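re: the backbone from monday

yeah here it is again, tokenized this time
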């Protein structure tokens, strides 16, 4: 399927954010942790995004903060995909009582909202960005496990799976050579949605103060530090808010396109068969 204008703009925005994060030392002039101007200095030629309440360059903090936010969200999404995908595929493979037990446990965790589950884990383990990464990743795993399990079961009902069983193929062979290659495309399309969820969860928990260190240059922390200066220095929440919002919208836009593309290819393959 062709990329529409919205998806192209999303790709451009995400590429810019990745380049900005990777090339931050080359693109900024000031240390993101050191004051360089009077507190709450408005945007100027030397400070294009202005200064925060401690006089630190907001442009530098957003550029370096992208490293933390984007990489932390990626790690959290990987945890979700690994844990959720493992238990979802395991449940579909073992079947029987063990499958029902795994799915019952996943359903019990799904009864707790993912963000609330992450906050419970942070309460037990203590605040900090590594804890947020783990908590958000674990919080999204039950939903992805159920999704992976349902995708596997839908593929197991296909005619080519029945044909493989009729030819004497065992479950391990079918899982390796038929189910996993077909389920991979579906799960990768949903992975973008879970990355957006991880991104939103990490920035939300950081905004709520669970990151621990309020001096770190993370977008959720920047948004939290600027909320008390909404009237006298609105640029403190404008730039990190735009970065967070546009990134989430871009990831969701690409996720919708990937899901539509996977469904289009599956329908095309079905018609050919």
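seq for it, each position gets an aa:
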């Amino acid at each position: 399927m062709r990329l529409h204008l919205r998806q192209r703009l999303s790709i451009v925005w995400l590429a810019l954010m990745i380049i900005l994060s990777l090339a931050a030392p080359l693109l900024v002039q000031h240390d993101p942790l050191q004051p360089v101007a009077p507190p709450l200095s408005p945007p100027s030629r030397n400070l294009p995004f202005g200064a925060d309440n401690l006089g630190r360059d907001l442009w530098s903090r957003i550029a370096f903060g992208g490293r933390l936010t984007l990489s932390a969200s990626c790690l959290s999404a990987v945890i979700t995909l690994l844990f959720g995908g493992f238990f979802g595929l395991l449940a579909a493979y073992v079947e029987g009582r063990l499958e029902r037990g795994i799915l019952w446990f996943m359903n019990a965790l799904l009864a707790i909202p993912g963000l609330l589950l992450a906050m419970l884990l942070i309460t037990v383990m203590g605040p900090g960005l590594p804890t947020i990464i783990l908590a958000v990743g674990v919080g999204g795993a039950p939903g992805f496990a159920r999704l992976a399990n349902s995708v596997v079961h839908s593929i197991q009902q296909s005619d080519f799976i029945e044909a493989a069983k009729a030819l004497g193929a065992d479950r391990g062979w079918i899982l390796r050579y038929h189910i996993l290659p077909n389920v991979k495309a579906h799960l990768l399309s949903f992975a973008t949605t879970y990355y957006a969820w991880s991104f939103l969860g990490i920035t939300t928990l950081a905004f709520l103060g669970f990151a621990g260190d309020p001096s770190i240059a993370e977008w959720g922390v920047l948004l939290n530090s600027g909320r008390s200066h909404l009237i006298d220095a609105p640029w403190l929440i404008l730039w990190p808010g735009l970065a967070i919002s546009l990134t989430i919208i871009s990831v969701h836009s690409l996720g919708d396109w990937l899901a539509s593309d996977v469904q289009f290819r599956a329908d095309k393959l079905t018609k050919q068969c």
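Residues 62-272 form a domain with the MetI-like fold fold (CATH 1.10.3720.10). The two ends are 20 Å apart (CA to CA).
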